[in-house]
Amino acid sequence: MTAFTGKVVLVTGGASGVGAEVARRLRARGAHLVLVDLDLSRLREFAKELGGDEHVVAVPADVRDLAAMEAAVAQGIEKFGGIDIVLANAGIASYGSVLEVDPAAFRQVIEVNLVGCFHTVRAALPAVIERRGYVLIVASLAAYVAMPTMAAYNASKAGVEHFANALRLEVAHLGVDVGSAHMSWIDTPLVRESFADLPATTRALAALPSPIRKTTSVQECGAKFERGIERRARRINVPAWVGVLRWLRPLLQTPFAERESSKTTSAWLPEVDAEVAGLGRSLSARTQALGKD
Question: How far is it, in rounded angstroms, from Cα 60 to Cα 119?
């Protein structure tokens, strides 16, 4: 337990999915938690599960609001004395091609995934510097390889990867380490909702070669995050083969590779856009409900 005993960990998107799994693992190893999420009922229930007020500060806050994130950090510092580790995990995805996605949904993805990451780090960084701590920014496989119908998600995750790279250079001399996490399909509510809403995407994924089509459990992903945070990793790839795509990125962006990809994309892209039109929304119903201004 020694690596995390007494450490204070801030987790955004901390009430479900990967954020909740990592929080559960670190709490079991003695960490104190500052959990931020928009889902107030789930946040309260989860905080109680992890030990309640003695070990967890649960803050309903929107990462798009810098003042709210500053207040969340202040509550954590008041309760536990500081912040050692930040997991900037909150993220959403939109549905539809560039021509068909709701522009408001596109903007919301950028604001949550990229601007929200900045707000999280900006609010917590002075405290992390004071404790020579660690920041883990959750990017994606999409930071390495662009995927059709996911332009906003691709752009935001490529952006947070470079944000992490820049931050690492800025704070290394202050004793702070910065990592980025890159995952393929993880069995989270976000992924399950996408598959349920868009059967054409599910069919397209099933046609891809293994292991690309495989969905990884939240538990396996959480275990890899736990190990990566413990060693203050520069990159965490889940599953491990995702890291290969980082090195193949130049090849995947050649005209030949893009021509091959476009052959399959042209077949299923109209189906996805038709499904999005049928839904009447470019976000999952849960994300849309939680993200209303």
Answer: 15
Sequence-distant (≥ 6) Cβ neighbours of residue 267 within 8 angstroms: none
Angle at 59 between CA 56 and CA 62, to 5 degrees: 145
Work out whether strand 85-88 and strand 56-60 pair parallel, antiparallel, or are unpaired. unpaired
Nearest to 37 by CA among 55, 53, 57, 7: 57
Q: How confident is the model at residue 293 (pLDDT cuts 50, 70, 90)?
A: low
- Counting Cα atoms < 13 Å in the Cβ hemisphere of 238 gives 26
Six token digits for residue 141: 């496989």
Which helix or strand (DSSP H or E) is residue 24 part of? helix 17-28
Residues 6+ apart with CB under 8 A from 192: none
Catalytic amino acids? 153
- pLDDT tens digits for range 172-196: 999 999 999 999 999 999 999 999 9
> Two tokens at 175?
């004793």
Q: Where are the beta strands (DSSP E) in the chain?
A: 8-12, 32-37, 56-60, 85-88, 134-138, 177-183, 235-238
CA–CA dist 59, 75 (Å, integer): 8
Q: What is the pLDDT averaged over residues 137-141?
A: 97
pTM above 0.90, yes or no: yes
